[in-house]
Amino acid sequence: MALLQLSEPGDSPAPHEQRLAVGIDLGTTNSLVATVRHALPECLPNAEGDVILPSVVRFLRDGNTIVGREALAVQAQDPRNTIASVKRLMGRGLQDVDAPMRGRYDLLDAGGGMVRINTVAGPRSPVEVSAEILRRLRERAEASLGDNLVGAVITVPAYFDDAQRQATKDAARLAGLNVLRLLNEPTAAAIAYGLDEAAEGIYAVYDLGGGTFDFSVLRLARGVFEVMATSGDSALGGDDFDDALADWLHRKASGVDLDCSRSRALLAEARRVKEALSSAPVVTARVPLAADGVREVEVHAQDFVTLTQALVDRSLSPVKKALRDAGLGVDDIQAVVMVGGATRMPHVRSAVAKLFGRQPHTDIDPDKVVAIGAAIQANVLAGNRRPGEDWLLLDVIPLSLGLEMMGGLTEKIIPRNSTIPIAKAQDFTTYKDGQSAMAIHVVQGERELVQDCRSLARFELRGIPPMPAGGARIRVTFQVDADGLLSVTAREQTTGVESHVTVKPSYGLSDDEVAQMLKSGFEHAEDDMQARALREQQVEARRLIEATRQALTEDASLLSASEHATLLTEIEHLEALSTTPDHLAIKAGIDALSAATGDFAARRMDKAIREALTGARVDNL
Amino acid sequence: MQEYYSLFSLPERYAIDPARLEDAYRSVQAQVHPDRFAHRPEAERRVAMQWATLANEAFRTLKSPLERARYLLERRGAPVDPERNTGMSPAFLMQQMEWRESVEEAASDAVELERLHRELARDERVMFDDLAQALDEAADLPRAGELVQRLMFMEKLRREITDALARLEE
Fold first, then answer.
1. What is the pTM of this model?
2. B60 touches chain A (CB under 8 A)
3. pLDDT digits (tens, 9 = 90+) for A571-594
4. Chain A interface, mutation test: which of B10, B36, B62, B165, most A Cβ atoms within 10 Å?
5. Hey, of B9, B25, B27, which one would you mutate to test binding to chain A, going by the most A CBs within 10 A of its CB?
6. What does each C-alpha distance from A620 to A179, A594, A612 come to in angstroms?
7. J domain spans which residues (chain B) (predicted)?
8. Taking the mean position of all CA atoms in its chain, how far away is CA A515?
9. B9 lies in which domain range?
């Protein structure tokens, strides 16, 4: 098995040099942080010993926030300012938000961009709310690991589109986390499960969380986790079961409109009843009434099944789609792994069992498995790979990416389930004489009509030199990175004129907005922000210097004497800079050394590939 | 841009050993995947993304019998232009129309659609053997180009059948 024998760019460090990294499951209902210590993954608890942080944020008048269990406890007292399930709003415009979420909060249309939530502390973007949750988890990690975190792997639903992924990454940035990777939740679960079982074969992960549903098919063979297909519904989760039950209870009890606070209490009661029904045949619900008091309503398990069977059935259609995309039948699946708290519901389990003709695996804690998998991946990404931990992860993009063509039709550029990272280029031309600009509309989805797909970005290519219609050749290049994030560039080919492109995210935050939020977070502590920026740049400079020195030791032969000397000069220059308190100067030095090492990095990569293939051939003999 | 066969140290031929291709792909990704460089400086991360992107594209191209043929024809200076139907024999154009009609007629008949799908797959296999012969032995590029055009049409038709079957299932 050639994979285990390869030498690595950053060889395994000794235990005392371990670089600390965490995995974070940023869930709709609950969030967790986990890490690998002494070779074992574990979820980190808060001071009270709880590992689960409810994903609930309460905003106070003074701008402070309360996050987690305490916020959850007071949500009925202060429903408008206590935000739960914010994940359902990530990367979404006001018109995308479902009715229950609209009724619960005072939502604002931010000029067609990402929705804002009006709170007592002012309007907040879902990114800022998520950042509050991530900040608490970062503090928790730093309290038990020390404050030298290298970075974090943050999980996202596999079916999240580009805007939702970007929003998650922005939230991490606001929370002061260095994102090593965005990892798909079912893939994280498969890592935790697959490495635990050390089993090879084809696995399916059925992941029904609080607000999102994912289904992935993975092949685990010879140290490679390969996602074969993924599908899902980014607006289907345990929340919908709560909403359906709350609605039913309300109609049974009175049907008279409830105020905000009582309807939140009703929702909490519905959730409690749902959870209790997983292990009891009958549960008595205490349903709040419009006036004071409650009415007791008996709920039988069968009532709940009848109410929500349609939701369960809705999850089965993406399952079939993914199997079809992977070219597999249910018999090809070695095991089905259940992930997410909502898979505790018996009728969800039995529907999956029926479809696959066998019992799904429910033996790992469905609340923790995603965070554990993320921690294992974070540990490897931080450079703490140990012998035997030499697996590789090949993930895919969940939704096709395309462009709007004439007549409102979509032209697919990258099909769904393509292995990432991936790049594709497509040429277009002008349709009018002397046309000097071209509007480019990037969409994501499977449908033929642009209006049925999600709009990701619109931008204009300007400065096309005057040419007859059909004369220009504009090459649009899509690049999807390992986080599943897209960048688009456009260039006119025939004249060699390179035109500049500005991307305006349709439902995202611009860099300026994120910078502004970062700044306002430090409004009362300008010094803090300076200190943090300085520390970050110093750490980055040290990492870069170390890495470059190591590369020079290993591969000096790839450089001419003068190239070698140039790199040494840049290293010395950056070393001198990093002792100053000027974070901007250090940043400039980092950029200079990075630019100087570009060619060298490419040559090293080339050499590594050649050596690896030679090694592989020797193995085959 | 690096040539796909040499990236994987494989001989530039149409006939390919899928197991060897996959081994080579995995060996290359094990070296270049961005996950291996997440803790490394920005310059190395950028190079890793470029190489991993190239490896994925090269693997995808060489793994697909049709994409691989198109790639070889391009390398040999006889690229296939999917927009142009020239070079297709009248007999094939005729058959093309017949197949289309059969698929349209069978629109909601799953059994018939599956039969057509099998029939197409069988015809394609024969044509792929001819293609291998034209590329690796006869070096008959015009012939290979025509086969590729036909196979592209058939693949598209087969995808339409799969889509129709998927719609029936839902």
1. 0.88
2. yes
3. 999 999 988 888 889 999 998 998
4. B36
5. B27
6. 38, 38, 13
7. 3-77
8. 20
9. 4-63
